Amino acid sequence: MNKLIILCLFLGACSQGVSTEEPLEVTPSTIEFSGVTTTTILQETTTTTTTTTTTTTTTTTTLNIPDSATYAVAPTISIYNCPEEVVLMQEFEVSWEMFAGSSDIDYFRMSIWKNGDYLSRVFYEKETLPEAFPYPLANTSRPMTVTIINEFEEGDGDTNTYVVYLTVSDSEFPFGDEIPCSITFQN
């Protein structure tokens, strides 16, 4: 038993002051003393140091914005006299104006619906009918009118409601502008 204590003291003395950054290879060792078997397993120890560095970066971007004249402007329509009240006369003249944006207007459409049902439409495409319609040129406008006549039919109620849809577009804005005007006539 004294030999076991001496061996433990010897192993303890040998392990003091050992410093390493690499992992130790550990193998179990077995020592036998007159019928007593002792197994010693050394525990592996690794020291790790982690350093974190944080960097903050600021980026500044300068934009040179050109004059607004260089931006494309979409065509528009303005209706000047869409009635809010019920119309008591047999007909009503709708006044509107088409404004060309930064390109020539190349398409105009007007469709009319009566009491929610399709009634009629007309459209002009500059590509196929260049002389048939007075297409406004870029940065100009053209005033227009259309007369809606209340066509009373058997089965119509006390009123008829017509909705006029006006649509314009150009090469830069193929969906352009569409604006409705609702006119309700007293029958």
Report on this model:
With 187 residues, the protein is mostly beta strands. It has one helix at residues 2-15, and strands at residues 29-33, 36-40, 76-79, 91-99, 105-114, 117-125, 141-149, 159-170, 177-186. The protein is built from 1 helix and 9 strands; from the N terminus they run αβββββββββ. A hairpin with a 2-residue loop joins β5 and β6. The protein is elongated, with a radius of gyration of 46 Å. The relative contact order is 0.19. Mean pLDDT is 78; it is low at 29-34.
Number of strands: 9
Q: What would the principal axes of the Cα set say about the shape? A: elongated
Counting H and I runs of at least 4 residues, what is the number of helices?
Answer: 1
Strand content: 35-45%
Which fold does the CATH topology of the domain at 73-186 refer to?
Immunoglobulin-like
